[in-house]
Amino acid sequence: MKNPMLEALSQLLEKLLLISNFKLFSSGTPAEDKARNNFYEISSFLRGDVLEVPRTHLTHYGIYLGDNRVAHMMPDILLALTNDKGLTQKVVSNKRLILGVIGRVASIRVDTVEDFAYGADILVNHLDKSLKKKALLNEEVAQRAEKLLGMTPYSLLWNNCEHFVTYCRFGTPISPQADKFCENVKIIIRDQRSVLASAVLGLASIFCLGLVSYTTLPAIFIPFFLWMAG
User: Fold this and answer.
1) Which residue among 161, 168, 182, 208 is the active-site one?
2) Residue 212 to residue 208: CA distance in whole angstroms
3) Active site residue 208
4) Could you report the per-residue pLDDT of 135-147, keeping only the tens digit for each?
5) Left (φ > 0), alpha (ψ -120 to 50) or beta: where does 3 sit?
6) EC number(s) of the enzyme (predicted)?
7) Is the pTM above the cut of 0.85?
8) pLDDT tens, 2-36?
């Protein structure tokens, strides 16, 4: 049974990670839309390769399945609203993605290389070097990805696209991006100035909104927990 306190903390951290990387989901400029027409050397990709697309703050990952097909995990709120595959199989828009992150609903889906990369440069098997792990055979990697196709719960911290590809590629789901974010949060928590800042914000919310439970309790408990954690 999940601990309600840990679950609430997890949700808070995920919202902070979403907000800190909000530019990632912003609408593209005309130049970026034009870049979507970039030509990719698909013939150089091997079935089972990990394709990595750097974004503004985060990196998106997928597994190449061959024949211009990429399996990748995508948050999509539309999955919770309809079973119409004609709608859900269309390229996921920014709004669908953001709401999918908030709603924790996603799917491991197959898109073309062009739709997966959205005009960005593609790195191939870069995780092999950065994680210094031995990869499984490419065919096994691709088969693992194919077995996971379909709907899946989503979490920026515990089950994102990086967890998906590292499980397929190395046999263990890990996310250095999420780990780095958690480490940064720990640094902030250990900084006693964050306790003072949260206390000031709490008092300001009470002053503006009045002495009610939804302002008073956070104003007391958030600085207390930060102080204890620090």
Assistant:
1) 161
2) 11
3) no
4) 999 999 999 999 9
5) beta
6) 2.3.1.135
7) no
8) 555 545 545 555 555 555 554 444 444 433 443 44
